[in-house]
Amino acid sequence: MLSNYSIRSKLTLCLGLFALALLALLATLAAVTKTDSAAFQTLLADRVVPLRDLKIVADQYAVAIVDASHKARNGNLTMAKAAEQVRAGRGQIDAQWKAYRATYIAEREAVLADTAEKRMHAADRKVAELQTALDRGDRAALDRIVVSDLYAAIDPVSEALSALVEEQIVVATQVSEDALTFDRWAMIVSFATALVAGAVWLFALMISRNAIIRPIGTLADTMEELAGQTNDTEIPYQQQRDEIGRMARACEIFRAAAIERTRAEEEAAQTQQQVTAALRDAIAAISAGDLSRDILYPFPADYEPVRQDFNAALLRLRGLIGAVAASARGITTGTGEIAVATEDLARRTEGNSASLEQTSAAITVMGARLKGIADSATRTLTTAGDASRSVGHGREVAAAASAAMARVADSARGIDGVIEGLDKIAFQTRVLAMNAAVEAGRAGEAGRGFAVVADLVSALAMRAEEEAKRAREQLTVTQSEVVSAVDMVARVDAALVQIAGATDQVHTLLDSMSSENRAQADAISEIATAVSTMDHATQQNAAMVEETSAAARSLRTEVTTLNGQAGQFHIGPAPAARSAAQSRVLH
């Protein structure tokens, strides 16, 4: 039945059943989770929180009211502090009780809560009296209320609160047991759902294996046999109406096509064998040197172009062999002429090589001489440079001498001023001596000795004037000689300037000559190199001519051999079919 459904439908069925089982399992788990969450919220909001509120109410009665009143009686707490603590406890009790009453309360719990609330109202009246006594500081009233009324009012409240706490514990226990019972049933349902999902998975696996995987594997094996040229294999599953049936019917078409292809290949092999035999006979004739055997009988239509191309190629080969034989005879004549011409060219090339060798030797000698002249000019240029530097040094010495003479002239003029000063001093000294002599004469006998001294000083001053005059005359002669010496030094410097100019011109001319000689030597060297290159090229040409001559002789021998080998082929007369083929090839 499943064989009539497609693979897609089969897979969809399997996946759908498995998905339904999974959804059922997930729904069960979701219900369990939701129930557990609700039970937890119930325990927390409706049982645990009320327990906390009831505990706070009971603690406030025990601590904020009873304990504070006892501490006030014992003096451990002031009346005002105790009143404040009682007031805070009453507020806390009222707030927590209202919070408790706002939670969910069951019917039985509501009855207990109403009872507790009535007792709390009764106790609150006594607590109010306690509050008033504490506010007034009335210790007698405080003692009376604590001893007689307080416990009688609060104990019933504590009992009612304890009953409420017990009820909370009972209800919480019941909620927990209900949740556990539901969890057990949910686990059973989940296990059953998992078993169903496993069964669905096994069913889907069985369907996939029997209806999909196994047929596909069988078809794969069948296709491998068809690929191995086993065409007698039966194709299964052709009757199925799914994709596997379509694949099986396609394989059957491939098998029929393979059988037809095998038959066609056998017929083609027979035809090819006949064509190969004809070509083999024709090629054997060509190998034996017979180029006159065309393939005359026609080939099948597919191979007829091969026969025509073979006959055309054979026709061209006959023409080529004939042309090669004719060309070989012409090449034989040409190579003989080339050999004679190359031998003549070799002799003339050898003569040119000898002439170039002599020319190269002569140019080499000329270059060596020009190089020697250039070296001599270079040395002369160096000597002229040394002379120019010596003249420059002489000019420097002459300039120094001229400067020294100028300094001597300046010193002479200074000495002349000194002598003139001494002359003036001597004149003044003589005038003073004359005045002293006059004064001594006036003094009479007492100034006689002074008069003698004045005469001596006057005589000394006259001698000083005479010596100063002689020194001036000698200095004048010295200045004249110094002027003459300075003029001679200037003339020597002018002569040295002319010598330096001439030396520079000689240096320039020698430098130009040296450059020209070097340029000529370089040119001669280049010419010698070029002649040497030409000589080398001529020698190479001679060698190449000899090689060409040898190659021409070798070519003549090879052409003679080629002519003999071409003569081994039998071309024969051209039949009508050959002429038609040739005409077809040419056109």
Plain-language structure description:
Its main location: membrane. One of its GO terms (cellular component) is plasma membrane. The structure is a single chain. The protein is built from eight helices and no strands. The relative contact order is 0.07. It has about 575 residues and is mainly α. It has three domains: about 170 residues, Up-down Bundle (Four Helix Bundle (Hemerythrin (Met), subunit A)); about 60 residues, no CATH class; about 280 residues, Methyl-accepting chemotaxis protein (Helix Hairpins, Orthogonal Bundle). Helix content is about 90%, strand content about 0%.
Low-pLDDT sequence parts = 574-587
Determine the fraction of residues in helical runs and give it as a percent range. Answer: over 70%
The CATH class of the largest domain, by name, is Mainly Alpha
Percentage of residues in strands: under 5%
Give the topology string: H per helix, E per strand: HHHHHHHH
State the major sheet.
none
Return the average pLDDT rounded to an integer.
Answer: 76
**Overall tally of structural domains:** 3
Structural class, by secondary structure, is: mainly alpha
Secondary structure: number of strands: 0
**CATH homologous superfamily of the largest domain?**
Methyl-accepting chemotaxis protein
